[in-house]
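Researcher: Batch entry, complex prediction.
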Amino acid sequence: MRISQLSTESGVPIPTIKYYLREGLLPQGDQTSATRAEYDQSHLHRLRLIRALLEVGRLPVATIRKVIDAVEDERLDVHHMLGTAHHALSTPVEPHPEDEDWQEARELVDRLIADLGWGVHPLAPTRDELTQAVVTLKRLGMPTSQEDLLPYATAALDLVRDLDITKIPFDGPRDVAVETLVICEVLYGKAFDVLRRLAQESESARILGATPCPPEG
Amino acid sequence: MRISQLSTESGVPIPTIKYYLREGLLPQGDQTSATRAEYDQSHLHRLRLIRALLEVGRLPVATIRKVIDAVEDERLDVHHMLGTAHHALSTPVEPHPEDEDWQEARELVDRLIADLGWGVHPLAPTRDELTQAVVTLKRLGMPTSQEDLLPYATAALDLVRDLDITKIPFDGPRDVAVETLVICEVLYGKAFDVLRRLAQESESARILGATPCPPEG
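Model: Structure tokens for the complex:
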């Protein structure tokens, strides 16, 4: 298809497509004459992936480039390609290995992951993210022992095993697998978070025997 | 206790305490002389609540004032007081009732909540938040029928019933109940989100038979 049709089918305006081509995020089409290039299904997949990274993941262009480099590097197996997207989506957290609370929380996180038998890289930034949440909870006097965290971990694994992971097409085009991972992680994650808050409102009403609560209390 | 001790015990600097007093977020102490006021446990609870709303909930001062007004308004029952904090924490979403996709998603959300028998106010902003997530998922071609969303809702309710809601002291001081709700909603919510991403990484490795993935994979 020509660039105009690629634009219609993807919903991405032509100037934006040209920008992605210049930035190397979208591979060049097949040049059929000096002024014409042909695009195919793989370009449509790539545009969907860029849109998911940009609009759903809200990632900066430099990070999107890293993810796309991993998609294009066929020597990288699917798991490591997905890992790149995965790590790109985590909020960077400054570790404080000199701080005693941090050390203790990090040991707890590492032990939890080991005891669960989860295969997560020792340097994965997600470990720091969890450590930070544990440190903050502990400073506020909330329960954060392994026993306290374990039911959250089990619930998370059930959700991933039964729902999230079943949606990812591991054996299709690489772009599509990464796009689906980003959507699952961000949007079903958001949907779940809202459902949790709806359930909290409902349970609080049930326990207190109250009628549902209007906005602005 | 005097203001200096209140500062030591709460970890909040004296100038910040004076700012909260001026803004009416913290009730005045008991004036014992022209230059001395006495503070008590209730002031400590209030300072913890302000810190939770500010640092954990990342709410602006105007929103914090609304939550604190609800805490101080003893005519408001506990459920409605908690509801104010609850709604303050939701991300404002612009509804699009004129849009067909929006209408359809909103009907789905309302039906889901009704079928679950959840007690959530018809005007709760959380309904709009979920509607927006559903609209986005649907436009990206992801499954969003009631059947697709139901398992997420059930998992959310289990989590709330078994874990979140058990932590809230409904019959203690009003400040403490609201503080705990904010911490549970934001920080255990964050911890769960990270655990979900850790589980995704681990499950992807298991399914693909890969070794765990280093950062910058």
